[in-house]
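Hi F.,

I've been meaning to write this up properly since the lab meeting, where we talked about keeping a consistent format for the predictions we share between groups. The idea is simple: the sequence comes first, exactly as it goes in, then the structure tokens exactly as they come out, then a line or two of notes. No screenshots and no reformatting. I'm using this chain as the first example so we have something concrete to point to.
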Amino acid sequence: MASMDNTRPFIGYNFGVYSMRFRGIDSVISRRKKGSNAGDFKSTDSQADYATSRGAMDAVAMFVCTFLLFLQTPTWVQLISYGSIAIASTLAVFKLCSTINIKADLPQVEITEDDNHELEDYSATRKLLDNEEISIRRKKSRLQGSYYSFTLKLWILFASLLGTKLLLERPSHNTQIDQITANIHSDTALPKNASMDIVVSYFKENVNGVEKLLQELREIEQLRVLEPNVIIYTKNNESDVQELQRRFAAHEVRILPNEGREGGTYLRHIIDRYDTLATHTLFIQAEPHSKSRLISRIKLYFDPSRTGMLDLGYRELRGCKCLDCRDEYSWRDVTGLVPDLMAQAHHIKCDENTQVATSYKGQFIVSSKRIRAAKKALYENLNEKLVGENRVVIGNPLEDRIDAPFFGYSLERSWAVLFQCADLTAMRDMCPGLTLLPKGFGDFQKAQPEDCGCLDI
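Output, unedited:
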């Protein structure tokens, strides 16, 4: 009983001490908070700030990733630009993180004699204050970590671009296709009686837009000198031929069956005019891909005296394996068209190491020498596979319609192979892409015709 009587005052005394202790701690912490900066982390605010900052950083990084997916293989000028952005972002992050100074943001509190009287257990008070300091440090460290993580992602993306530049765009210069144009010769000056046709695949596109496109093409210096003939192939049976000829100032307007997409149009022109082709022919759709940059590429890289083929679609310089050609758009050469054209147009039998260039969007300039380097029978055979009675059907026959045959996608990617411009080294890293880049944004050196196309040497 005596021991219990002695315990009660002791317990009461302890409760009193702890009560005084916590009141003292509250007073000290309140003084610390009053003296702290606005940047101090409170429990709810700090978590919200951290989540917001981390989300913002990840959103920006994802935007950059998405942006880069649409870029073609970059030029050195673009790489330097991206590198400068990464460096500037890194410096900004370091500057931002330096302002989040953990030690500087924590107010220093001196325990006075009054505090010692008020806080009987100083070590316990200090322990609680230290825990608060550790919590603030951790939260600020996490915020700094999100900034550094964002910077690291930028540099990883930059390294990926650089790797693409160095590893993918520069194939071996010792390929089987290097000598395929040895038998194609051209004069160094503009040939006598040089001519050019502009072949337009038309359906129901806006007449004003096509009229403006043709006007801009005619104003290009190299084309203006050649005074090109415009030939319109329309696949709209209701087209007013005379009105289209008047509006487009066309040399000829011809109605074709709505079959084979633009590839069928181009093959029909080549087959019908095989022996009377113009020196150069510009094949283009009524609504071309990236019109302004297409025109810029013609201005910079078309040489009427030397150009053999100038691809005006976007670049895919990684190409594909001849025996298993496929791309990132889920297309695959299931019919074996690419190795077949390599054998007939290039007289080269593909092996597992043969790489070929692919073409896109069905817009290009090609010389009559390149077209006639392959026999007319080859074009007739391709047309038969595309729109003939025994045409090639890929997949579901109900989906593979004759007006939009799946074989047309294979033909679209094979124009460069057909016109002996399948060498990956023919179009170097100097050739600017058509997507997301300013007009004429190339590299340090002056544009040369060989930068973007194949020459009739």
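Notes:
The mean pLDDT is 74.
The longest helix spans residues 122-168.

If this format works for you, I'll send the rest the same way.

G.
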